[in-house]
Amino acid sequence: MSAPTLRSLQRAFENGELKLHYQPKVCLLSGRIVGAEALVRWEGAEHGVLGPDEFLPLAVRSGMLHDITIGLLDQAVAACRTLRGRHAGLSISMNVAPDDLASQTISQRIGNLLEDGTLEADELEIEITEAAAMRNVERVRDDLERLRDLGIHVLMDDFGTGWSSIDRLSQLPFSSLKLDQGVVRRMGTSRQNLDTVRAAISMARELRMTSIAEGVESDGAYNFLIAAGCEQAQGYFIGKPMPLDCFIDFLRSPRDFAGSQIGRVHQSVFNLIHQRKSVIDAVVCARLGPGTSLPSVRNPGIADSVRESRVGLWYYGAGQALAARPVFRSIEGPYLQLHEAVQSCLRLVMDGVLDDSLDRAMSEMDVRTDRLIIQLHALERELARDMAMQSVPIPPQASY
Asked: Pairing state of beta strands 33-44 and 91-95?
C-alpha cells in the first residue's frame, strides 16, 4: 500500500474520512467506566483504517493539523452530546497540539461552546503530551490556564517519557497525569520499573492530580495498579479504540471490572506518617530559633479544615463509597481526634510555647496517629480479602 499523499489526505478530510474512535477508561476505585479517550483514525476505502502515526506527520508538515484538530473537536463535542442523553457522567478526552494552544484557538472555541450550552465543562478533557508541553511551557501556559478557568480538565499525556522536571510540571495547570503506555507495559520486567510506576502514582497524588495508566493489557497490570492506588486506566485489557456506536454498545453490555480503594487506604497510612514528620520538622525548626530554617518547614501548611487535609480529602471524598462498612465508619472519630491533636501541636509552635506542654501534645499526636494507622490497616486487610474474592472474569474484548 502506498504512503498517504497530501492530496489524498486533503480529500479524506473533505470527505469526512477522519473519524474519532473511543478507547474506554475505567475508574480503578469503583470499577465503573468513566469516559474514553478520542483517537483519530483514517477510514478510507482504498487502505482501510489507518492509525494517526501513518498520516498525522503529513498533516503537521502540510499545515493541515489545525483544521483537522478543529474538525475532530467538533466530533468529540457531538459525541459528548450523544452520550449525555444516554450515559450521563462520562467525559471524552482528546489530544491537541501546542500550536493550537498557543493561538488560543482551542480555549476560545470551547469557551463559545460552553457559553451557548452546547457543551458541559465536565464532558470534555484536553490532553497534551509531556514532550510537547515541556518544550512549549511559555507558549501553552495561557491557554491551559484559560481552559482550567473554564472548568475543563487538562491532562498531561505520555508522562514518564523523560521530559518533565517537577519544577516545570508545577508551572502548568494539569489536573491529571497519564502514565505512558511504555512505562506501564514494562512494569512486569523488573522491580525497578514497577517502583517507577508506583512513584509516579504517588507524585500525582502529592500534586493533587489524578493518575491514569495507559497501555493496560493484562489482569496482572490491572490488579497492581489498583493496589498501587492508581485512579483510572485504559488499554486493550479494558477495551480497544472503537467507533462511537460500538462504544455505546460497550457501555450497554454487562462488564465486571474490578475496583477497590485498597491503594488509597495504603496511601493514607503514608499520609499520616508524612503529616507527623511535618509537625516534627516544624518543632525542630522552632527550637533551633529564627533564621536557621526555611519558612515553609517552620509552617508546614497542614490544612485547618479536616476535610481539606491529606486523609480528609480521601475519607470525605472517594472514600465515602465505603461508608457502609463498620470498619470505615470507625475511622472518623479517631481521625477527628488526631486532626485536633496535630492542630494543638502547631498552635503551640506558632505561639512559641516550646516547653514540656509541647512534648505532651506531641506524645498525644503519636498515640492518635498509631491508633488510626491500626484501623486503616484493618480496613486494608478487609479490602484485600474482597479483592481475592472477586472471581468474575472480564468478558473477552471484541476487536474493532
From this structure: parallel
